[in-house]
TrEMBL record:
Belongs to the CSN3 family. Residues 458-486 are annotated as: Disordered. This is COP9 signalosome complex subunit 3. It comes from Apiospora hydei. Residues 231-405 form the PCI domain. Its main location: cytoplasm.
Length: 486
């Protein structure tokens, strides 16, 4: 016990480690001692592991604490359950991310056990795993196998709020990407997450394309449950434009397309075209598979509420089979709301009575029964922040809706705060930008594009040596030399 405790407390040392080289050397030596302790302990750690957890600090002795905790939790829980789980939660919320870079496999195994529901209740599991992922990678830009495990747990158990801080992050890197370099020292805190998070460091298992698609689908559905239509729209769009080897359309891509059409109506108020970078074969498949959805979308931007309601009722079995009944109800509910919002293109102020006569409900196919119903609807829209406006009453009792500008003018202090916030965000993106730029610079397709672009510029210069930079810009796709994988 004393020898094990001395080993656990040996890192970090009392004297400061002034640079990455010294830190890396010290932690590598500590890892050798920990490995020996775990591989051949004089007494099984399960007998005195609890004492070690009491005498070490999860924030200060993170590497040692994880080693002991792993021996008590994987593959099965050993020791007093409540005691160990309290220590587990404390660790996952407070570990030192720099130390943990050297024990990615141990941490991933614990996170997998937590996501499988074998250790913590779902609400607590989603909270602590979300926190752990963002401690490892504060940018949230690196996708790992744990992301999908967490998304499944959160969605299937309806514990969505804690995971939003993870799924809202923009994924830039994926395991196994080409041209990914390996770090000289894991402790370098300026590293891009893609450099220290990969299968070799144990933070993730290899992932398949289907894992990425499933994660985006779950993310989109969770955003739908929160009625965050813009983010749901972006998540589904990533799926339907996903590049495939044969340029085809998988089942999950077709499913996402149908939801994307409906969410487009909710977020944009109208049907929008498929992005141009969608694979041509997939785009053709969407037109066929999503025909009933396109019919609804084409009617949403008209004033024919009765026909829209009839079209939705006619294909009710399709919505049920596709598990899109809830989204279709949202579309019917949003129809009149978008009619009201579109009135601001013509009016700056309009009476409630006029709004009632000029808009219809797609749920009934007719105008609402009374001005009070319209006023209540508008009031709810203002409260939910879906409409920028105020309700005002004249002396004669007539109620008007005054539309407000969508953007507000910031004070000088508020503007300065926004600038400072943006500067911090840009600073945090530096490692990501640097890594992306390095990967792009070694990409064969990008090099071909540069050669083609330089040759094109040289040809134009020979024709007219007086031409300036702006004259060299034409309508050709800037990435025309890149072969699409879609």
């Amino acid at each position: 016990m004393d020898q094990a405790l001395a080993t656990c407390l040996a890192f970090p040392p009392e004297e400061p480690l002034n640079d990455d080289v010294a830190y890396d050397q010290a932690i590598q030596a500590h890892l050798l001692k920990l490995t020996k302790l775990l591989k051949d302990p004089p007494v099984p750690l399960s007998q005195y592991g609890g004492q070690l957890l009491e005498l070490t600090d999860p924030e200060y002795n993170s590497l040692s604490y994880l080693a002991v905790l792993h021996s008590l939790c994987v593959p099965n829980l050993a020791g007093p359950r409540e005691f160990v789980l309290v220590k587990l939660v404390k660790f996952l919320l407070g570990f030192d991310p720099r130390q943990i870079r050297y024990a990615g496999s141990h941490l991933s195994e614990i996170l997998t056990a937590v996501c499988n529901g074998s250790l913590l209740p779902p609400a607590a599991a989603v909270e602590v795993v979300s926190a752990a992922i963002l401690k490892i990678d504060p940018t949230g830009s690196m996708f790992t196998s744990t992301h999908l495990q967490l998304a499944k747990l959160a969605y299937n158990t309806n514990n969505i709020d804690p995971v939003l801080k993870v799924v809202e992050k923009n994924i830039v890197f994926y395991p196994g990407m080409a041209n990914s370099k390996r770090p000289a020292m894991l402790c370098d805190m300026t590293l891009s997450p893609s450099v220290y998070i990969h299968k070799d460091t144990g933070f993730t298992n290899p992932v398949k394309a289907t894992s990425v698609l499933e994660y985006d689908l779950l993310s989109g559905m969770m955003f739908c449950s929160k009625r965050d239509w813009e983010k749901a729209h972006a998540a589904f769009e990533r799926i339907l434009t996903f590049p495939t080897r044969d340029g085809g359309c998988s089942k999950i891509m077709a499913e996402a397309y149908k939801k994307w059409v409906l969410v487009s109506l909710l977020s944009k108020g109208k049907a929008i075209p498929i992005p141009q970078y969608t694979g041509p074969a997939a785009a053709k498949a969407y037109q066929i598979l999503g025909k009933p959805y396109k019919e609804v979308a084409s009617l949403f931007d008209t004033t024919n509420a009765e026909e829209l309601r009839s079209e939705v009722e006619k294909s009710s079995q399709i919505w049920q089979d596709d598990q899109n009944v809830g989204l279709m109800k949202e579309v019917l509910s949003a129809y009149q709301e978008w009619q009201i919002k579109n009135l601001q293109k013509v009016f700056s102020k309009i009476s409630i009575a006029e709004i009632r006569q000029q808009t219809k409900s797609a749920q009934t196919g007719t105008i609402l029964n009374s001005d009070d119903d319209i006023e209540a609807l508008i009031h709810n829209m203002i409260i939910s922040n879906s409409l920028k406006g105020v309700l005002e009453k004249n002396d004669d009792g007539t109620v008007f809706l005054t539309f407000l500008p969508s953007s507000t003018v910031l004070s000088e202090a508020e503007y300065a705060q926004e600038l400072a916030k943006t500067a911090v965000q840009l600073k945090a993106l530096e490692p990501i930008f640097k890594t992306t730029n390095e990967r792009l610079g070694t990409s064969r397709e990008y090099i071909k594009h540069l050669i083609k672009d330089q040759k094109r510029a040289a040809d134009k210069s020979e024709l007219d040596p007086t031409m300036g930079f702006e004259s060299h810009v034409d309508d050709e796709d800037l990435m025309g030399g890149v072969t699409s994988t879609a």
